[in-house]
Amino acid sequence: GAGVSQTPSNKVTEKGKYVELRCDPISGHTALYWYRQSLGQGPEFLIYFQGTGAADDSGLPNDRFFAVRPEGSVSTLKIQRTERGDSAVYLCASSPTGLSYNEQFFGPGTRLTVL
Amino acid sequence: GNSVTQMEGPVTLSEEAFLTINCTYTATGYPSLFWYVQYPGEGLQLLLKATKADDKGSNKGFEATYRKETTSFHLEKGSVQVSDSAVYFCALSDPGANSKLTFGKGITLSVRP
Hints:
The complex is a heterodimer. Chain A is an all-beta fold. Chain A is built from no helices and 11 strands. The mean pLDDT of chain A is 95. Chain B contains no helices and 12 strands. In chain B, the strands form 3 sheets. In chain B, strands 2, 5, 6, 10, 11 and 12 form a 6-stranded mixed beta sheet that branches. A 4-stranded antiparallel beta sheet of chain B has the order 3-9-8-7, with no helix packed on it. Chain B has a two-stranded antiparallel sheet with strand order 1-4. Chain B is mainly β. The interface between A and B is medium-sized, with 28 and 27 residues.
């Protein structure tokens, strides 16, 4: 079956612009996570959805970052007024139920470059 | 808060050498522990996991044992192959922290023929 997909695979934008990153999780997975991975680092948690609601957004760095999952499937991560420090690979993952022992299935990531 | 510490890399080994990658953790609850791997040009994928103390996770010849007394989850393989060249991440998921994964920095393994 299809895995987690993310679009675009690469995004180059200018400082101050708005960007949207999309994630299509595995069908039927209720839990969806966003992570950010900077060069040479492990992924860092941003936000977790259970169904349509954001169950934990404690990892969002500031109010320029926002994410939605309106129908409990596709999610969009939105970044306003992008800064050079936002440059990173943004990873999406999904899991069947969100229980802590569940494997999380990762997408290939979106590489965001802010010039 | 939760944290994962991995040994510094990179690591370069000859084929058929023994591999150990150290991982220690700090958690407030009773976490599940994972090793994820990222092969060149591919996304992160689960290598193995253990969900309670003394459990051993294993896959593709790799093993790791959940040691609560030493808060460790070291990854081992008896004989590495060139195809094992990848970046390895240790991670934990704390049921008291909404199942989000906390990752270590990752370590790059290169295996030469």
